[in-house]
Amino acid sequence: MPGTTASTTETPVPDSANDAWVTLRPLSIGPVHVGFPVVQAALSGYSDMPMRVTARRLGAPYAVCEVMLDQFLVSLKQRRRTQHFLEIGDEEHPVGGQLMGAEPEQFAAGAVKLVEAGFDVIDVNFGCPVKKVLGRCRGGFHLGQPHVAIEIVRRTREVVPDEIPVTVKMRRGVDDSAESRDKFFTILDAAFEAGVAAVTIHGRTVEQRYVGPSRWEFLREVKEHVGDRVILGSGDLFTATDCLTMIEQTGIDGVTVARGAIGNPWIFREAKALAEGRPRPDPPTVHEQRDVIREHFRLVVASYGDARASRIMRKFGIKYSDLHPQPVAVRDAFALAKTADEWHAVLDEWYAADAPGRRADRADHAT
Fold first, then answer.
1. Full-model pTM
2. Considering 247, 275, 303, which residue would you say is the last residue of a domain?
3. Among all residues, which ones are annotated catalytic?
4. Ordered DSSP codes for 203-234
């Protein structure tokens, strides 16, 4: 299987607290070797093959596809309009497939579909906080019903071949009650007992959605609880420094970058440079941005066709604009582009002259 060669190389990371050095351990998920422990998270509506490949080329060693419903996968037909859901690029292994659903048996059937499609890791989503998802007893809803969540994990692990790791994505609970906390740890412990290779934890509750800070101290508590088992962290990772600081402060094994990677795949390159003790790279120049955006657009056309590409790329263009020295004007231009000609016209107008890029920061991701 691609991406399964073991490695013992360790990279020093500057300790943000006292300028000492801590060890950044290479990440493995079961038998799948990932390496650098800063990876791209599953992003609903975003992390398709073109986005994942773009991130890989700029330093992400692993990425997870956008979450898919089990019942959708079970009924999915091989059609041009839907082929992108299970599309995997030759260069992006290892790659994870993420699954969400309500009922254990159908969930397991969906996992089989992801295995057949060629995903190297199967990820179980118990973290989505969207109201529509919760109302249909999916995603974060399962954190409130441990018996169903545990059965989903067990059935999924049983049907997925042993050599393919199963992982779980969770939030720290439905809310901040003691009952919710107990249910979280019940699911966490049972998932590892069932053979899960790693658990990713977002430091917010389901009730919070994306409002308020992500509690990184909870990640430290979880890591101390599980010992050598693999824990990945998520939440409020908008800069390369955020990624390394979360690992250093909590002792977790790696981080998954979600919103911070949309329109800024250079975050992985920056994190690796800092981890290796090199200066933080300058933001990509206007021409560097142009070349990556143009190639991203080409990949989208190949996956979705000419007619759909401009609409799909609009949301990416709006985020790419954050790095341009004139972000507001470029954002407005991308928002109005409705055809491929209009899309390329934006690049020709706003990316023709090279100039230093702008560094994205937390303000660009304010909700």
1. 0.90
2. 275
3. 128
4. SS-TTTTT-S---HHHHHHHHHHHTTSEEEEE
